[in-house]
Amino acid sequence: MIAAPEIPSEFAYTQDTDTRFSSDTDFSEDPDGRSANSTKGKGGKKGKKAAGEKGKGGKGAGRINGHHQENGMENMMLFEVVKLGRSAMQSVVDDWIESYKHDRDVALLDLINFFIQCSGCKGVVSGEMFRNMQNSEIIRRMTEEFDEDSGDYPLTIAGPQWKKFKSSFCEFISVLVRQCQYSIIYDEYMMDTVISLLTGLSDSQVRAFRHTSTLAAMKLMTALVNVALNLSINMDNTQRQYEAERNKMVAKRANDRLELLLQKRKELQENQDEIENMMNAIFKGVFVHRYRDSIAEIRAICIEEIGVWMKLYSDAFLNDSYLKYVGWTMHDKQGEVRLKCLTALQGLYYSRELNARLELFTSRFKDRIVSMTLDKEYDVAVQAIKLLTLVLNSTDEVLTPEDCESVYHLVYSAHRPVAVAAGEFLFKKLFSQREPEEEGAPKRRGRQSPNANLIKTTVFFFLESELHEHAAYLVDSLWECGAELLKDWECMISLLLDDPLPGEEALTDRQETALIEIMLCTVRQAAECHPPVGRGTGKRVMTAKEKKTQLDDRTRMTELFAVALPPLLAKYAVDAEKVTNLLQLPQFFDLEIYTTGRLEKHLESLLRQIREIVEKHTDTEVLESCSKTYHALCNEEFTIFNRVDIARSQLLDELVDKFNRLLEDFLQEGEDADEDDAYQVLSTLKRITAFHNAHDLSGWDLFTSNFKLLNTGIENGDMPEQIVIHSLQCTHYVILWHLAKLSEGSSRKDDMVTLRKQMRAFCMMCQRYLTNVNTAVKEQAFTILCDLLLIFSHQMVSGGREHLEPLVYSPEDSLQSELLSFILNHVFIDQDDDTNSTDGQQDDEAVKIEALHKRRNLLAAYCKLIIYCVVEMKTGADIFKQYMRYYNDYGDIIKETMSKTRQIDKIQCAKTLILSLQQLFNEMLSELGHGFDRSSSAFCGIKELARRFSLTFGLDQVKTRDAIAMLHKDGIEFAFKEPSPQGEGGPPLNLAFLDILIFSADHMYLERFMTFQMALQREDCWLPLISYRNSLQAGGDDDTMSVMSGYSSRGSSIRSKKTKEKFALALESSSSEVWHQSMQTPVMMPSPHLTSTAMRDPKRGRDDSYMGTPQHHQTPMDYNRRGTGLMEDDEEPIVEDVMMSSEGRMDDLNEGMDFDTMDIDLPPSKNRRERSELKPDYFDPASIMDESVSSTYASLRSG
């Protein structure tokens, strides 16, 4: 048994943990030191060929399928058969075993060449090389046979024919050991040679050799673990038989059977010792070094297999000496490796029998597992949560409340797999304890059901989480594991309507609000069968079973809530928040149930309740919910349409009549109108506006009355703010509904003329309100005006709507100027200058965020006008020049606007960008004067802005050539535009502007303005011109001028491909030198120390510490502390070593390059250009801004 990964002192394979199997390792001695007979060990390999090998070697070697052939087709058949994966693997292995029994040297040579060919090497080991050369020499010779033009090898090649190669390769090794487990693996020849070869190959600097041999060695180890497990079982059975026989009475005891069992146990023990020696050799020779390899795939293979060993043969491997490797590797830099650690541990924690052996490991690495729930790789985070769920199942004492809370909040994660895994954890922790139901007792329902307390627990959790706007996310997270609980709507209704039982505490008002919100979310989830907004992964095709479940749920919820909704509305009629949520329920009903279920009286009751709510409330959200409910119920497909339509029409008739009457009185009273009159007008106008959003009220002439109201407000200037805002919104709806009718193409010409007049008159009205003293009114007018200009722009005639061309409206210059002024005065302001916040809440963070969100919407509305060419593109200069100053607030919007304008017209975009720089330069001159210091913050800020502008043009200089040229043309003209007051000998006043243009090059146009005398000037005042010319010359030397940039760009992609191909094949010793040479440039950060992929002796002069640092959220652990089983080995701590490859900053600088192997780099002359092209844009807002901000451009503002 192997209780620890230590090699017995009598084991002849290796003695030191850092020693490798070399080709001269002597396998000719058995574990007891006795020399093997002449047919065993390496002596047989070094001797003459056996008779069976004659005729198979020789110099008559040919090539088949591009590979060397020395032993006929047999040399290729093994690799080809495994590659095709069509034949039964057992028959392939049986054929090889027959060949081995006939001539083991020839068969073993075939097996060696099989591993060489599986590595992608074209070379073939000949019989002479096999007999006379050491392993290191053979591997060096094979390294020279690699195809330098391709870095691919069978394990990495894509394509259908290689799709199953890895599985076939692994299956071959497994079947080979299984078929040889009774004799051949104990002959001290075959396994010794294979292990020696794989150990040597795994130490190669060639990635293909290292990757393939490590996979083979790990699968070989797994197969040996199965053999050892079988031997262990047989030994236990034999021991029991021996003990049973020995305990018999002397007369009945069979001594010959005792001797036979004793001999069998001895043979099994010897075999077990040999297998353990082999496993120790593989573990010490391969695993201990490759689990910290520079290649993530290799590290992942090692961790995956050690997990298999611990699960299969727990008696030998499930101890701290092996578990520590998994624990250390959980700090790996690559998510793929961390993921393998977690899946390996899941297999162990899943078994309750193994949990007792994991106590020390759990206590040591629990904090790391908990921290991995926040891993940047979502797959890793999901598996970490699932692992904690398994830990929770095994014992409740391990995880502290703080550990659980760190998982609880993940139910609100936007990534659905993470949220679902956290939901399962939460469900196991909080809801696993249910009250048992007595057999034969009637099923308790409603408030008395077992789910009542669980639903209350859900409400308590939701409230304690303090994320009250995310109930839909909580429900979605718990849906897969707790759908039965969440769909117990009868219990929820009972908790809301029924009186509490004796001794039961009633729900508070806050808890009732939370329960109603959760109930609404469960209804929506059951009816729509897709996750909430922001968590979906696209539309998924539902199965027949899911569709049936959806229909059944909709039927059941309609039957329940059609009856319960009216009393719920009656009970909570005065509570706006509760009513708003309850009124959304009918949107998910199956309205046919009202007729088929004879529930018309409940429909009448519902309509009465909605009417009463409309009359009681003036809250916008409540009124919009009522409007949407009427819209959902007014479906012409159902028989209830007429009944609902009549109720809706009666309500609207009363509202419009009341509004017209109140408005007429209000306008007549003028300044004498009191607050009650204004309130009545406002409340009625709110109701009409809310209904006009979802319903076509064209039958009532609302435009005339609203326009009259707005016009009076302009003339008098004392109209209440909210009345104006809602009147603007209502008039906007009138215009949009009129346009919707005309878009159908069935209207008269008079309607077109009427809409055109109304639209233009309303736009002029909104323009007049831009100068209103009230900020909220101005913002409403600006937003509506931008929407109308966009809707009625030239793009409205696209898509076969040419008949709408008379409606196209282009804003005049004065209107464009006013819109731009509004943006500059109301958006680009400091936070403290925003006077929109009231009640002394300027310091309140929530108020500031809301104000910023409002300003972002205003800016987005105007930027859409630029993008869709409604206003001139040059107006964007005043927006673009704010890019640096307001980068945190609006950087993403401005950058996206620049990107869109560049796609529309590169030349005009370039002219706009240079115009923005010129404006900033003139502003600086007016403030600092012409004698300003070029090191001043203002001037450096303009230069930085110009540099960031240049980054937006991308790397393809051929496509942007004309735009860049135009940018420089305008810039040079501006620099030489104002002559020097000193005469011809002095520098132009704007000459310093050339300093701003030193981010790109175009020297041809510069010569038109330069004189011979200017070229000879060397005074400080001429430095901008000197620097600009020098930058152009440097650009010409570096890039062979921009004319050749197209070839450079195409060449870079070719070089990138060549780089990836050569990385995988070169020797690591030369890579470090070339790497350091290529990276020592002023703009690059210092390169990290790159060393061998294997642990070596100090005398080799290689640095073993090639690992990076842990992730920022990981807490380094003291792995050097002694005294526990996890620390007793003398291996280096993986927390310092396993973070392979380079630092994160090097990953950024070398984006797009394949540094998986660290084996070789391109020469500096080839790489310098490519690396400079691939440097990322560190100013991309996507790297620091929430993705949600980009949704500003997703759609036009709706009503």
TrEMBL record:
One of its GO terms (biological process) is sister chromatid cohesion. This is Cohesin subunit SA. Residues 228-281 form a coiled coil. PROSITE patterns: SCD (PS51425). The lineage of its organism: Eukaryota, Metazoa, Chordata, Craniata, Vertebrata. InterPro entries: ARM-type_fold, Cohesin_Scc3/SA, HEAT_SCC3-SA, SCD, STAG. GO terms for cellular component: chromatin; chromosome, centromeric region; cohesin complex; nucleus. GO terms for molecular function: chromatin binding. Belongs to the SCC3 family. Residues 287-372 form the SCD domain. Keywords: Cell cycle, Cell division, Chromosome, Chromosome partition, Coiled coil, Nucleus. Part of the cohesin complex which is composed of a heterodimer between a SMC1 protein (SMC1A or SMC1B) and SMC3, which are attached via their hinge domain, and RAD21 which link them at their heads, and one STAG protein. It comes from the Eukaryota. PANTHER family: COHESIN SUBUNIT SA-2, STROMAL ANTIGEN. Component of cohesin complex, a complex required for the cohesion of sister chromatids after DNA replication. The cohesin complex apparently forms a large proteinaceous ring within which sister chromatids can be trapped. At anaphase, the complex is cleaved and dissociates from chromatin, allowing sister chromatids to segregate. Residues 1096-1105 have a biased composition (Basic and acidic residues).
